[in-house]
From TrEMBL:
Alphabetized UniProt keyword annotations: ATP-binding, Cell membrane, Kinase, Membrane, Nucleotide-binding, Phosphoprotein, Transferase, Two-component regulatory system
InterPro entries: BphY/WalK/GraS-like (IPR050351), HATPase_C_sf (IPR036890), HATPase_dom (IPR003594), His_kinase_dom (IPR005467), HisK_dim/P_dom (IPR003661), HisK_dim/P_sf (IPR036097), PAS (IPR000014), PAS-like_dom_sf (IPR035965)
Record GO cellular component, one term: plasma membrane
Residue ranges annotated for the PAS domain, each copy included: 108-179
Membrane spanning residue stretches: none
Catalytic activity: ATP + protein L-histidine = ADP + protein N-phospho-L-histidine
Taxonomic source organism: Myxococcus xanthus
Name recorded for this polypeptide: histidine kinase
Length: 453
């Protein structure tokens, strides 16, 4: 048989094996040697073309079956040459290596996906051209994107921001990392802190991590506003006290008419200052949960009566009537001192913001398994647009009027926090020039007979 005709059929499996070896980066010498040995043996055996063809068919079939997930070659098949069996064994070990590597790769890919999808930060990965090729679950809600697929998109198509686009391109082309913060407008504006980094030296492309810092920035603003507000609130009485004290020092002390008036103002302002500091401390204790409220059964009629007694002199001074309608058996679960403080703040406001001759009523009831107390006045009322904000620290509808009335702007914030700490809440209903009703809700004490009757 001519040598060419014998070697030609060897070419096919040789190419298959060589390709596999190349793919797997396996031990090339083993296969080269096996192939040479096989060819040598076949030729030295002086095999007929038909026999050679059968051996090669066997080898080709086995290779195909293994590639399709078939079992390893059984030992001791009589018609199989030892050399072919050796080659089949090498293919089996290649197959085993390939399978193990596949399992490891699949495992790694699944772990990576689980980690990415478990993150609260959004992540996208781009190719060398800056096109998104992969992203995690958290990214879509962060971008509030309406587009159906994020992959295959350019950064500019997902977020209209040149700085982000530039950062991605710099990471892809110059391997430069950058950090930027941007605010997305829309229904729910959000602030994103974004870190863009190149992938790796031998892996072109970039990765970006999106962190939603909206709440963080809001809290920072609240803190800054609070500090500014406190400084402003403290400065007002301090400026008055210093001004009048200096005027007295400058000779007014000897003025028998002005001196007592100025001393009176200094006294009033220092009281205001101390109220402000007290309220601030109370709020800060509540917010840092330093005060541990002691829950007990609170007879709401008694708490309302004590609070009313405190503000009655002021109400009577304005010709106002305070009437209480709280059933004596209405028992809430709360801290007695805190409940009284809540009612006192609400009654104090009702008297403060109700003109002379007005009426303040306190109603108590058990509704849907909760204690409800309503403090209703016939005062100036609150426009709807202010109603949700009056529980914020220092928020006042009318700054001038509140200060004239001696308010610190913290009373309702304290009410809200105290109630929250007792598992309760406060609501307001109001009509300008008609009056306001502040309603508080508290858990019903277990043994309250109002619960059943
Ligand atoms: P202030 O010390 O200014 O009274 P609060 O926190 O107690 O502070 O109340 C916040 C603002 O809510 C007040 O400045 C006032 O504008 C409004 N407000 C509170 N209670 C009443 C009420 N009963 N009637 C009308 N407005 C009220």
């Amino acid at each position: 048989m001519p040598l060419r005709a014998t070697l030609l059929p060897l070419l096919l499996p040789a190419v298959v094996v060589a390709t596999l070896v190349a793919l797997l980066d396996g031990p090339k010498e083993v296969f080269a040697a096996a192939l040479v040995a096989l060819a040598g043996s076949l030729m030295s055996l002086g095999m007929s073309r038909g026999t050679l063809q059968r051996q090669l068919d066997l080898l080709a079939r086995h290779t195909r079956e293994r590639a399709e997930g078939g079992p390893p070659a059984p030992p001791g098949v009589p018609e199989r040459l030892d050399e072919v069996a050796g080659l089949e064994g090498a293919i089996d070990s290649l197959h085993a290596q390939l399978s193990a590597r596949n399992v490891a790769l699949t495992q790694e890919a699944r772990t990576l996906t689980a980690v990415l999808d478990g993150m609260t930060e959004g992540v996208w990965v781009t190719d060398a051209e800056g096109t998104v090729v992969r992203h995690n679950d958290a990214l879509r809600p962060l971008l509030a994107s309406t587009s159906s697929a994020l992959t295959g998109q350019r950064p500019l198509a997902l977020i209209r921001n040149e700085a982000l686009h530039d950062a991605v391109m710099r990471a892809c082309r110059e391997a430069a990392s950058s950090h930027l913060e941007l605010t997305l407008d829309g229904h729910f504006p959000r602030t994103l802190s974004i870190r863009v980094t190149p992938l790796a030296k031998d892996l072109p492309g970039s990765a970006a991590v999106f962190h939603d810092v909206t709440e963080l920035r809001r809290l920072e603003k609240v803190r800054k506003d609070f500090v500014a507000n406190v400084s402003h609130e403290l400065r007002t009485p301090i400026t008055a006290i210093r001004g009048y004290a200096e005027t007295l020092q400058g000779g007014a002390l000897n003025d028998p008419v002005m001196a007592p008036k100025m001393v009176e103002i200094i006294h009033r302002q220092s009281e205001r200052l101390s109220e402000l500091v007290e309220d601030l401390l109370e709020l800060s204790r509540l917010e840092s949960r330093e005060v541990s409220l002691k829950l007990a059964r609170v007879t709401l009629a008694d708490a309302a009566a004590r609070a009313a007694d405190t503000v009655r002199p002021k109400a009577e001074g304005k010709g106002q009537l305070i009437s209480l309608h709280v059933p004596p058996d209405l028992l809430a679960e709360g801290d007695p001192r805190a409940v009284e403080q809540v009612l006192l703040n609400l009654l104090d406001n009702a008297v403060k913001y109700t003109p002379a001759g007005g009426q303040v009523d306190v109603y108590g009831a058990c509704e849907q398994g909760r204690c409800v107390v309503r403090v209703k006045d016939t005062g100036v009322g609150i426009e709807a647009r202010h109603q949700s904000r009056i529980f914020e620290r220092f928020y006042r509808v009318d700054k001038g009027r509140s200060r004239d009335m001696g308010g610190t702007g913290l009373g309702l914030a304290i009410v809200k926090h105290l109630l929250q700490a007792m598992d309760g809440e406060v609501k307001v209903e109001s009509e300008p020039n008609e009056g306001s009703t502040f309603t508080i809700f508290l858990p019903l004490a277990a043994s309250s007979s109002a619960a059943t009757g």
